[in-house]
Amino acid sequence: MRNKDKKIENILLLLLVSVLIAIALFLFIGVNKNNFRYLIETRGIKILAIILSGTCVAVSTLIFQTVTDSRILTPSVMGLDAMYGFLQTMTIFMFRKMIPSLTAPIPKFFITIGLMAAVSIFLQQFFTGKSKGKLLYMILIGMVVGTFLDSLSNGIQMIMDPDEFLVLQSSLFASYNRVNTTLLLIAYIIVGAIFVWLRKDTRTLDVMSLGYSQSINLGLDYKKLLRKNLTIVGILVSISTALVGPVVFLGLLTVNISKELLKTYKHKYLVVASIFMSILSLLVGQMIVERIFNNSFPVGTIINFVGGMYLLWILLKERKVG
User: Fold this and answer.
1) Rounded to two decimals, what is the model's pTM?
2) What angle is formed at CA 127 by the lines to CA 124 and CA 131, rounded to 5 degrees?
């Protein structure tokens, strides 16, 4: 067992070194004495945003897959991405003219987080964790809510002013080129508080991964822990999405790769590996977007494409095993 832990620690060290190298490349490529201050400042903000969103997405997806006992699900099945799109659409279409103060960055940020977190908490009542049927019921409700909100958003977008629609489109995709530094600081404070709340739960997540019956037999208050973890998932996803936009497949991609690399059930390792993989993926994706495609599309497009292909590969692999 000690040899296995040592191997895992070596893999984590390798991932950390890879992240540091990626940060250095992202930060210093193309920098000279004439543009040093400007590039370091703007790229530094991007790196901080990437670290935050990568952490939120990785941890929320890992927790969600643990409590749902499924490696092909992400928190997006709860309709949070659709809620984000609907809120952005309504903000620009209605509140931009009627209540301009609500479209200011800070009020808009907290309204988005609050409503998205409320949706995730609402959906918790449809999932007690006792059976796959309850899980499927929660997924179904989330899909219905998401489809309904998508339909409303599309209908409103059809009658929007073209200039407003262009403004809306820029906010519907994940981008690290427009991060608000004040919101970034607020987000770090909130996420830090959540991690303090979550710090003792890695071992309970190990037990929860065994399933409802085994967790109850081992003395866990499963329902209480389930509500707590799903609430954390909702808040983390809300913060990441409200800050930089939705990245649907990032967590699916990085969490599953981390599980394949480490081959362990221990969340104290999986959390760290998933965070490193998410940050590394976003850094590489952002460099590709900036260096090769000259910022012609957002980094979320690359992440979602690669993540979608990886999901298809997982499904085909599971089918062959079955």
Assistant:
1) 0.88
2) 165
- Tokens of residue 8, six digits: 């895992």
Candidate CATH numbers 1.10.287.1490, 3.40.30.120, 1.10.3470.10, 1.10.150.110; the one for domain 2-321: 1.10.3470.10
SS3 state at 174: coil
Q: What tokens does 1 get?
A: 């067992």
> Are the C-beta atoms of residues 269 and 260 closer than 8 Å to each other?
no
pLDDT-derived band of residue 158, with 50, 70 and 90 as boundaries?
Answer: confident
User: Could you identify the residue written with the tokens 């940050």?
Assistant: 279
Average pLDDT estimate for 284-305 = 83
Q: Mind listing the pLDDT tens digit for each residue in 93-105? A: 777 666 666 667 7
Long-range contacts formed by 28-35: CB under 8 A, 24+ apart: 29/287, 29/291
Give the per-residue pLDDT at 104: 74
User: For residue 320, what pLDDT is reported?
Assistant: 60
The span from the CA of 241 to the CA of 148, in Å, is 19
d(CA 187, CA 286): 21
Tracing tokens 């007690």 back to the chain, one arrives at 128
Residue 310 to residues 15, 235, 298, 307, Cα–Cα distance (Å): 20, 26, 19, 5
Largest CA distance in the chain: 65
User: Do the Cβ atoms of 280 and 51 come closer than 8 Å?
Assistant: no
Tokens 């952490």 correspond to what residue? 55
Q: Which one, of 281, 209, 248, 319, lies nearest residue 51 by Cα?
A: 281
